[in-house]
Amino acid sequence: MEVNPALYLQQGLLGPPHATATALANPTVSIASGVVIGTTLPTTSVAAVPGVANAYLGIPFAKSPPRRFSAPEDHEPWSEPLYAQALTPACPQAVSPNRGSLDSFLDSDAASILPVDEDCLYLNIYAPQDASPSNLKAVLFWIYGGDLNGGAASEPLYNGTSLAVNGDVIVVTINYRINIFGFSNSPEIPIAERNAGFLDQRFALNWVQQNIEQFGGDREKVTIFGESAGGYSVKQLLAIPPSPRPYRAAIMESQQTKLPGNGALNFQKVLDHFNCADIDCLRAVNASDITAFLVQEPTSPLLFPPVADNATFVPDIRDAVRTGSFADVPIIIGTNKDELGPLVFLIMGMAESKGLSLAEALGYALYKLGAPILDILGIISDLASLVDGDLDWPVLSRMMTDIAFTCPSGAIANLTATSTSTWRYRYSASLFPQPSFEGQDVYHGAEIPVVFGTYPRDKETVQMVDLSQYMQQVWTTFAKNPQGGPGWPRVGTGDGPGLADIGGEYNSTGERPIDCWVTDYWCDALLPIAEKLNLAW
């Protein structure tokens, strides 16, 4: 397994394999698998509590490399100390090298330059230096986003030192398999094992239950949180909770509905391209050749959605809430103000390059992203009718953000609030403006560096620092006492404000409760349109 030192040295996350400090000078933990020797790292942001974090980087939570396309297996114990002092490679990425393509707004730019290897089933632990088995801390367990196509725990955005130190919690970040490697859709794989990526997440959660107390984490106080596809993964863990349940609370940042796609057809396309008759043949193909084929057409990458197995994935989690199988744990759920502004900007560029109207380009994009072709014209007509046919960029951006993110999250919050404590937010802080997306710069993922405290230090502002410390305090206080809530009214507690506006114009470094109609005024009209897209909830 190779690691690119240059990428991580600049983040302060990788030193020589055997640094000059002795093993005794580094944080050392003994678990059932063997001895783990970590390192210490300075925080990435202005710390509310000055200090450094203990970091254990690259601990295997399953056998790695895994058998391609198959379920994870237990890792064998190690006889020599494991030097957990360097981030490990990302799992194979299906991220187009053309960053102007339609999929770029969902994929992480950083993921396209990270070291990649199928030997990737590792996790990272960031802990306050006083954490120990006799001084246990609450645990935040992070699942990254990337549309189940890209992403990695080693992305600099997910450095957990600031969140761990400022919030006095343990932060765990994990890798899991994605795209065809995590969701092959192969009919040759038993249906209970086809969502290998979701199984990886559950395997890592089980590892935390077995081992986190040795690192100073309380196994009874685990909060799962994730963004985008990570929030979607959290939602599935709530809909089909493992038994015994390995978490007690959840935070979903920008969880979304997903277009269903046709994974089985795409898997067959991959077999045909490599002249393979079966999955064993495809297991012998170089991983980089496979991922290169997946993204060779940048406007229509081959997508591999999860398979309904009733073990790790259900197409509509609302049924789980209604039947009572949804986990009864406190929940925070929220979205960003301009989630899909960048996507609509890319659609505009495509319209100009192909001589299409914005509506025609939207239809083309929906088709390429897997929307049912027979419904697309009706969907475009329905959207246009809401604004008298005037589908300009800001209007379309708001509509698409509401269809994919705002309205489904609001509907889920209203539904879960009938049975469990639920809090909702909208993130509105414009901290990282992009000239190309002027007026639409609270985009997908904009809150991540604020939550993790991984914003650029050379560009930080007073608002950035203060808002980051506020959000870290909210997230970590919730992890310590979920029933106490984040500090604003629960969903469904009356006729007053139904969600918190975070970083908005009336409180740029905190939150202000607002009425749901501010965000949801189109939802009654848009949710039926979303149903026509056959979206997976």
From TrEMBL:
- Keyword Hydrolase carried by entry: yes
**Which key words tag this protein in UniProt?**
Hydrolase
Gene3D superfamilies from the entry?
Answer: alpha/beta hydrolase
User: Does the keyword field hold Metal-binding?
Assistant: no
Q: Which PROSITE patterns match?
A: CARBOXYLESTERASE_B_1 (PS00122), CARBOXYLESTERASE_B_2 (PS00941)
Enumerate the active-site residues: S228, E339, H444
Q: Which domain of life is it from?
A: Eukaryota
Q: Which PANTHER family does this entry report, sorted A to Z?
A: CARBOXYLESTERASE
Q: Which family does it belong to?
A: Belongs to the type-B carboxylesterase/lipase family.
Query: Per its record, how is this protein called by name?
Result: Carboxylic ester hydrolase
Question: What does the organism's lineage look like at the top?
Answer: Eukaryota, Fungi, Dikarya, Ascomycota, Pezizomycotina
